[in-house]
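Entry 12.
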Amino acid sequence: MQKIAPFAAMAVGVVLALATSAFNKVPKNKSGDTLYTFQYNAPVTNPYSQTNVENKANWSYTAGTPSCDDNDQQACSFEVSSNSVDIPTMGDPTLKSSFSITAQEYDPSDYYVGSTSDNDATIVNKSL
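Predicted 3D structure (tokens):
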């Protein structure tokens, strides 16, 4: 019995690790790189102007899924690889200083994300 106990404990540990890892799936791209979602936080003044949409300070990491409907009318969210993100030891990931956002005009006061410097980014905009 004493010889079986360590193996039983190890088996239980493996089962628990597999069971809990199923609930902690991190999104990954085809290359296996971790993906990070950033949501647009529209400022009060000129919320969807080109300048505000392209300003990285108006984008924040979110662990959830933003509600966007994928219509190219206003900025909403994008998902990028870890190559575009700085990951601090404490706090949320942030966009690298070299990361850029290019806004596209829907109408003179509403811009959406047309592209980013991460060519593999998944961009999701929303309707008005």
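Annotation: The beta strands are 35-40, 59-62, 74-81, 85-86, 94-95, 101-107, 110-116, 122-126. The first strand starts at residue 35 and ends at 40.
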